[in-house]
Amino acid sequence: MDPFAKKVVQLTGIDPDFNDINKPREILDRMDDFRNVEFDVSEISSSEYVCRYVAGERDLVDIPVFSLRTLPP
Length: 73
Fold this sequence. Notes:
Number of strands: 0
Strand content: under 5%
Distance between the termini: 22 Å
Largest sheet: none
Shape: globular
Oligomer: single chain
Number of helices: 3
Structural class: mainly alpha
Radius of gyration: 15 Å
Helix content: 25-40%
């Protein structure tokens, strides 16, 4: 996401506002109130999504993304 956030790569037709939040719990808490969702796109855990789906909360769309992160040697 860095190239998009730093505008190294230009996105045509949209002007995204990136929020760099390094505390995953904060993201989940801010997405928790479905009457006042703060983000159009956000990351949540698979288990969080499945729990909400099973509970009947179906207003989120899941796009599974499995990124490979490697640590430098």
